[in-house]
Amino acid sequence: MPIFDGINLDIEQGWSSITGVNGSGKSTLLKLISKELDSDKGMITGNDLVLYCPQSTEYPPEDLDELMMTYTSEAFKLRDRLGIKDEWLGSWDVLSHGERKRMQLYVALLSESDVLMVDEPTNHLDFTSQKIVREALQAYEGVGILVSHDRSLLDLLTQHTIMIKGGELIKYRTSFTLANQAYDQGVSHQKNVLKTQENELKKVKRDVQMQREKVSLAKQRFSKKNVGRHDSSEREKINGALFTSKDRMDGQILQRTVTKARHISEKMQKATKEYDTGITFEGEIVKHGFPLGLEEGVLNLFDTTNLHFPNLRIDMGDKIGITGDNGSGKSTFIEHLIQKLSFEHSLLYIPQEISDEEAEKLFKEVSALGDEEKGELFTLIQRLGSDAKALLGSKLPSPGEIRKLLLGLGLLQQPSLIILDEPTNHMDLVSIEALEESLSEYAGALIFITHDQTFLDNLSSKKWLFGKSDDETFVLTEQL
Question: Is the dihedral of CA 83, 85, 86, 89 positive or negative?
Fold first, then answer.
């Protein structure tokens, strides 16, 4: 089944954003424009000098080594603005995902291109780095194409908004917020039209039934079924009888009415399919075993850089938000915390990124589920705004879809402790809002790392802040 069919789209100078739910085809569209994927039919023109900056940070950019050895004033200025250190070269595997993202964007912004496409450029970035990236992208003068869930970035950059809805592309010549308002108004109008069509369909169905009854009565008048075998007089009357003009009219009206009902039904089927969103946590969460504790200590992060943390306590019902600069040890600390916790109950941990190998393993695990569990999983994913069956049938699932699948699978175990590293990365806006609302109702303990200020403020009951004490020391402080 094609992702896009019969689309016609022009992208103009300046920044255009592409928005849509996970799995709608945003990244696929970028890969088609960049020639990383070939379309089955149709043409894409004007994409001769294109640079694509993907959302995944699993692998380093091809030209990284060469551009890190570039010593022009522009290169030095950009490295300084992005906070890139010379020792990061050759250390991709030990860099944080935020540091990798800055390296990735350095290559993208330094490379000469007519078209620059960036997929979730603020993923993994701390607040300072987000500001730097916004300013750097704002200065780009070519054709820019942006995929992001960062609403402030979308409104800052974009003059044109392209929405993917049900395989169709809808273009607005305005910012994301104004385009979203226009779309919502269109949906509201569509719902009113749909309601009118539903009422009309009910009326037409009643008319169909009435016409069928009339036609049936007419047929009965000319039927020999109830005529006696020896009643030749009645049989001759029927043989000699013809349909009156009214009888013929009833048959024609029936045909037209049935056709009208079919057309209305087809229009209704084309209406956008909408799912209820929002996860509900069912079943009893095991509460004994709390509070959990971690004694103060020191973690080595990079060469001579260390992280100091105090005694920490996790209570049932805590919602602990973690934030801080890239490279300050947040993910390393979470891995240490999981190793040290003496936790005998179900724990759900979802890392920042899921490798291709881990995704393949996840798909096999889902395929082995029983029908009942698989049905529950599909419901969870659907309530995060995605079609689970389409997800599992996809050859190229998006990182956001993989994250939803991992989250849904973990929630089936009714965990008492959930630990999420950058949960809003790769997620579409509908899913982020649904996840935030659902986690606020979660009765267990929640620990999450985020650079999404709105998500952090709305959800956390206390915060663990990672900050720099000096050039070689980071410190974790608790804010209640």
Answer: negative
3-state secondary structure 65-131: HHHHCCCCHHHHHHHHHHCCCHHHCCCHHHCCHHHHHHHHHHHHHHCCCCEEEEECCCCCCCHHHHH
Residue 239: band (very low, low, confident or very high) from pLDDT cuts 50, 70, 90: low
**pLDDT tens digits, residue range 382-439?**
777 677 666 766 666 677 778 888 888 888 888 889 999 998 887 877 788 888 888 8
| CA separation for the pair 129, 326 (Å, rounded) | 8
Q: Is 174 helix (H, G, I), strand (E, B) or coil?
A: coil
Amino acid, single-letter form, for residue 272:
T
Query: How much is the pLDDT for 243?
Result: 47
The stretches of 222-370 forming alpha helices (DSSP H) are: 232-240, 245-270, 330-340, 356-367
* Torsion angle defined by CA atoms of residues 163, 189, 432 and 171, in that order, rounded to the nearest 10 degrees: 10
Least confident of 139-148, 181-190, 420-429: 181-190
Helix axes 399-411, 429-440, angle to 10 degrees: 20
The pLDDT confidence band at residue 51, using thresholds 50, 70 and 90, is confident
Predicted local confidence at residue 99, as pLDDT: 84
Q: Which single residue is written with the structure tokens 């952090």? A: 456
Rounded Cα gap, residues 286 and 289, in angstroms? 8
The residues that bridge with 172 in the sheet, in sequence order, are 161
The answer to whether the CB of 94 falls within 8 A of the CB of 119 is no
Q: Determine which helix (DSSP H) or strand (DSSP E) holds 450, and give its type and residue range.
A: none
What are the two backbone dihedrals, phi and then psi, of residue 187, each rounded to the nearest 5 degrees? Answer: -65, -40
> For residue 186, what are the contacts with CB-CB under 8 A and spacing of at least 6?
none
E strand spans, 310-423: 312-314, 319-324, 347-350, 417-421
Q: Tell the residue number behind the tokens 């990383």, with chain if given.
A: 36
Average pLDDT, the chain: 80
Structure tokens, 146? 């942006």
- The answer to whether the beta carbons of residues 149 and 55 sit under 8 Å apart is no
Give the pLDDT confidence score for residue 242 in this predicted structure.
Answer: 46
Residue with tokens 């900050």: 467
Q: Which of 319, 289, 311, 294 is nearest to 438 (CA)?
A: 319
Rounded to a whole number, what is the largest CA-CA distance in the chain? Answer: 115
Residue 289: which residues within 8 A CB-CB, separation 6 or more?
343, 344, 345, 416
**pLDDT score of 272:** 46
- Kindly report which listed range (62-66, 87-91, 166-170) carries the lowest average pLDDT score: 166-170
Distances (CA, A) of 378 to 279, 374, 435: 12, 6, 16
Residue 428, classed as helix, strand or coil, is coil
Question: Are 432 and 120 contacting, i.e. CB atoms less than 8 angstroms apart?
Answer: no
Cβ pair 156, 130 in contact under 8 A: no
